[in-house]
């Protein structure tokens, strides 16, 4: 796959807690120049990016990030604020404690509520696979599908592990036909990016893609 073709799959990401405006601006300029799928940025920068770049960028931000255990009401409020500020896509983190308590219906209901809040905007659901058993991952595939989310996403990048090919294959087996896959976390080579895309991922979350292309 051509390098620039890879960029169409990339959510060009900068979510570190000490990100400066200058770093965010560079990220956005790169995303425009390389035509990435989106920029994935902290909520605090969404309005500034939207006002600065208008409609030149597809803006993604995060909700309940990175731990997921805020209340549904808090996540809804975050979504409303992000959309009002100009976000186009939302990446939400599930309540992992609810998964561990086997309260899968509660997780499903929360995802459904968030999807109803974002409406036609894209919702990606981060299930943080590094903390889940295979049975729990399967339950999350069902929850994401039943709640009509657009994507299931492997990781925040802040957990103990990132995307694996095994998890992508498991997702493919158990998600519904309308759910897509985003691999994120620990993807640091062009070969990894291409392998995940070939395995069926529609999005790749990484902060390294453009640096890798320039080095190549």
Topology as H/E string?
Answer: HEHEHEHEHHEHEHEHEH
Rg, Cα atoms, Å: 16 Å
CATH architecture label name? Alpha-Beta Barrel
Give the domain tally.
1
In one word, what is the shape? globular
Q: Span between N and C termini?
A: 13 Å
Q: Helical region count?
A: 10
Mean pLDDT: 97
What structural category arises from helix and sheet content?
A: alpha/beta
Question: Which strand order do you get reading across the main beta sheet?
Answer: 1-2-3-4-5-6-7-8
What does the largest sheet look like?
Answer: 8 strands, parallel, barrel
In the predicted model, the low-confidence regions spanning at least 5 consecutive residues are none
Structure description:
The chain has 216 residues and is an alpha/beta fold. It has one domain: TIM Barrel (Alpha-Beta Barrel). Helix content is 46%, strand content 16%. It has 10 helices and 8 strands. It has an 8-stranded parallel barrel, surrounded by 6 helices. β2, α3 and β3 form a beta-alpha-beta unit. The longest helix has 15 residues. The model has no long low-confidence stretch (mean pLDDT 97).
């Amino acid at each position: 796959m051509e390098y620039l073709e890879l960029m169409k799959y990339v959510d060009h990401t900068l979510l570190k807690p000490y990100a400066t405006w200058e770093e965010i601006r560079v990220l956005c300029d790169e995303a425009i120049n390389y035509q990435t799928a989106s920029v994935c940025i902290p909520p605090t920068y969404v309005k500034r990016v939207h006002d600065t770049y208008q409609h030149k960028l597809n803006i993604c931000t995060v909700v309940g990030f990175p731990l997921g255990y805020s209340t549904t009401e808090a996540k809804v409020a975050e979504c409303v604020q992000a959309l009002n500020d100009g976000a186009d896509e939302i990446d939400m983190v599930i309540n992992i404690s609810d998964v561990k308590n086997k309260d899968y219906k509660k997780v499903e209901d929360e995802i459904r509520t968030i999807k109803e809040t974002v409406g036609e905007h894209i919702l990606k659901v981060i299930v943080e696979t590094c903390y889940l058993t295979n049975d729990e991952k399967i339950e999350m595939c069902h929850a994401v599908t039943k709640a009509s989310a657009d994507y299931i996403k492997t990781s925040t990048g802040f957990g103990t592990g990132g995307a694996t090919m095994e998890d992508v294959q498991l997702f493919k087996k158990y998600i519904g036909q309308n759910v897509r896959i985003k691999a994120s976390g620990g993807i640091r080579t062009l070969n990894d990016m291409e392998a995940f895309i070939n395995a069926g991922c529609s999005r790749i979350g990484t902060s390294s893609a453009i640096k890798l292309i320039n080095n190549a």
